[in-house]
């Protein structure tokens, strides 16, 4: 602390909670802090944190600072880049919410262990979305780390399928089967759902109108083979809402066996459930 | 006490831990530059991916969301 005092004799470091190491841009330095080596951040009269501006330290001072930071690290056990620290704090705060914990604890017992980090990512993404935070970067990272499985799982989680469909499915299975058998059957259903999204189409900005139309028609045909007579379509963002509406118009012109049984639409969100009418029974000639 | 650093100070922080960066921007041991630092998953780390260090010997953490969430499990 003696060294810090020598850099900033006017600061009382007794209540210091945080040290930030920075190379501050000139515009910040010039904002009343020209030539400052240490910039304090107070709450009332109490010192909360200091920014040490490496750009203003001499070579000798920089060398003197190194063992101070190493000692502080020995005490804290960690050192993080500021943006990473903000993300970790934000995750911890959101992960403490009862709904987050409830879903994590429920599903981590029944999904494959390899999917648990992805589940945490997805629950965090959902919490960020619900809080109105920008989720583009998290979605991108989930895609980069987990590929289409990550994309599918995050879409299912954000659209509420975990609570509204997977959980009731497992509860039903548990009532009808032994726990071991319920888990076995659940895993088959879960695996099919996260790898194939059989009855759901999530429309993203990466898909063209034609891509969406093809995906909808392919899934309808495949599902019909297995007696599944519905398809859910989800879209977020104004352009995706418009894309889905345009595809629905084309489908309505092309097919007369499709009906919308649900249509929820806001400016930036759309959910449509399509029901496929049973084919006319064949006329038997006598 | 909390310790953080900004993006521009990464090399200074690495230097404190006797690390530097090789010609391909991977973090390496200062005194054994052919030895690239590894994460717990065994990944090499580029400077732009470096998000921090936590104890448990020296655990290097990447800046992607999986790594940060995993790191949060080990922090108070």
Provide the descriptors you would attach to this structure in a database record.
heterodimer, A: 286 residues, alpha/beta, four-stranded mixed β-sheet, three-stranded mixed β-sheet, 11 helices, elongated, B: 76 residues, alpha+beta, three-stranded antiparallel β-sheet, 2 helices, 6 strands, 20% helix, globular
Task: Tell me about this structure.
The complex is a heterodimer of chains A (286) and B (76). Chain A has helices spanning 2-7, 26-29, 59-76, 82-95, 98-108, 116-130, 136-158, 161-176, 179-196, 209-225, 238-254, and strands at 18-22, 38-43, 46-53, 78-81, 200-203, 230-236, 258-266, 269-276. Chain A has 286 residues and is an alpha/beta fold. In chain A, the strands form two sheets. Chain A has a four-stranded mixed β-sheet with strand order 5-6-8-7, with helices on one face. Chain A starts with a helix and ends in a 10-residue tail after the last strand. In chain B, the strands form two sheets. Chain B has a three-stranded antiparallel β-sheet with strand order 2-3-4. Chain B has a two-stranded antiparallel sheet with strand order 5-6. The radius of gyration of chain B is 12 Å and the shape is globular. The mean pLDDT of chain B is 94.
